[in-house]
Design brief:
By secondary structure, the chain is α+β, with helices and mostly antiparallel strands. It has helices at 3-18, 21-31, 41-47, 63-71, 121-126, 150-156, 165-171, 174-186, 192-201, 210-221, 226-236, 239-242, 245-248, 262-274, 283-291, 296-299, 313-327, 332-344, 358-368, 372-381, 388-412, 423-430, 436-452, 457-470, and strands at 36-39, 54-59, 76-78, 86-91, 94-100, 102-106, 113-117, 136-139, 144-145, 158-159, 189-190, 301-302, 308-309.
Amino acid sequence: MSPSNRVESAVSDLFRRVEPVADDLGEVFAKRGHELALVGGPVRDVLLGRAGHDLDLTTDARPEQVLEIVRGWADAFWTIGIEFGTVGARKGDWQLEITTYRSEAYDPKSRKPEVRYGDTLEADLARRDFAVNAMAVRLPSHEFVDPHGGLRDLAGRVLRTPGTPEQSFGDDPLRMLRAARFASQLGFTVDEAAIDAMRDMAERIEIVSAERIQTELDKLICGPNPRAGLTLLVETGLAAHVLPELPKLRLEIDEHHRHKDVYEHTLIVLEQAIAQEAAGPDRVLRWAALLHDVGKPKTRKNEPGGRVSFHHHEVVGAQMAKRRLSELKFPKEVTNDVARLVELHLRFHGYGEGEWTDSAVRRYVRDADHLLDRLHKLTRADCTTRNKRKAAALSRTYDELEERIARLAEEEEIAKIRPELDGNEIQEILGIPPGPLVGRAYKFMMDIRMDEGMIGKEAAKERLLAWAAANG
């Protein structure tokens, strides 16, 4: 099929899916004397054979005029983003973002882009991040517009800026991260000129807000091939500014000498964690896999015989992971869950040949809490030895641990374990008001429950009174 026939076929396929929504809105805009075009991701994705229910559109109408037009047409609309020229709307199952033709650039001292509105589709396309996102289809005429060779780049699976990369990345430095994100999401390579510019301009990323950086990194890590995007960040020096813990791992030799460095080990762990996902990308698991060894550089110690140790790197790493994700403005629950997984990722290695008591297994489950399934996956992913015998032995041992957990869970409902005396009973027995002392007593009773199982209310009361007497 010739390129022109391919375009015609793809555009026809696109409009088979989005009619009558796109054409209907195009007619509405045309009657009001305004242009409208489908642009960017939806055009790119249909040419790649990817479906979706989100439509990006662009127009010469100003945001206030767009609001007027969609007010009587859409099922719902919203103005989040209107300061950047974007109005959101919903029509049936379709989500639409309609943005006024624009150009935007960063002031060297500002974290926010300065938005300038434009008057032509061609000028709007010229300011877009990559040529594959600078294709459009005019509505309702279905005219395909590709002034920067986006179709050619799609065929070559390459990311290239419409103008010079220096100007593109200068206008919005976040586009450098977006290149890495698309490498992960779409499997594209990045044009050499763009890579050179990313190296030269890496420091410029520091003027971008943490929230925007977080969004791109999260999409990158949740893409089908995060290794490609992360490698690009490290090799261009961008990672040193947005995720500095990652390139530092290249300098550290793993204590088992399984790989030339911890960085490569980390990427393999991430890939092996992804391979265990059953229901799409698990951002908490992926971030935990990426950050599980970040404490190694700070805890590295040379030992006799040429060995290298990283004692307590999981504790240090948990603190570092929490700090990094907090600085990137991740939700608190995501930050806490990732840090907890990093802290627990070595716990299994104390299991040895299966000599843990039932109380130790209970503690493992209690400490993991709602993260137990992810901890299982992270622990298995962390085994990257090339020694097949050793790998098989570790897998068997973990299989046995999981079987013990399942058995205990069935016998005891382990996830619901509580002390035999609750907080109210502790207060009544000891004659104390609510406060920290109740918490300490509760923890003591929980330790007994975990170590000894059920001992009965009377015995529990005696142990509590003895503990109280011993602790004044």
